[in-house]
């Protein structure tokens, strides 16, 4: 009789250990090919940054669902790195420091094919402010559809219209 209780206890302990070691669930984006998944994860990254910037970031269930609670956040500006501890509060700090008016990301223009939306994936989204010329190219590392790491380094952007060929010919260039 004692051996039966020990056996049952052992089975319960093993079942609990297997549950603890089970792969995390995937916060899947829709799509089956690489281009669709890249695009949807890029849009998810934009939503995540805006949720982290929100005054209600700490109580946001959506942010908690889409970002690992020990997310790694790395940032810097110029030649100075800004060390940030892991966690959602660092993501909030980073989001608050980004004063962008626009975003852009590259579309997928390569050979396309089936892709697992839950596989490790890195997407890059640039947030920028045309007025100030400041840019924050962010790299979001996703695993199982959730952000595990965010990296950026603030940059200055300079842009302008391209000169016409005719104007260059007149200069003798």
Low-confidence stretches: 7-22
Query: What gap, in angstroms, lies between the N and C termini?
Result: 96 Å
The radius of gyration computed from the alpha-carbon positions, rounded to a whole number of angstroms, is 23 Å
* Spatial shape: globular
CATH topology of the domain at 32-108 and 115-156: Nuclear Transport Factor 2, Chain: A
- Total number of beta strands: 7
Q: What portion of residues is helical?
A: 25-40%
Explain what you see:
This protein is of the alpha+beta class and 173 residues long. The chain contains five helices and seven strands, in the order H-H-H-E-E-H-E-E-E-E-E-H. The chain has helices at residues 2-21, 34-53, 61-66, 88-97, 165-171; strands at 67-77, 80-82, 102-104, 121-129, 134-143, 146-151, 155-156. Strands 1, 2, 3, 4, 5, 6 and 7 form a seven-stranded mixed β-sheet that branches. Strand 5 (134-143) and strand 6 (146-151) form a beta hairpin. Residues 7-22 have low confidence and may be disordered.
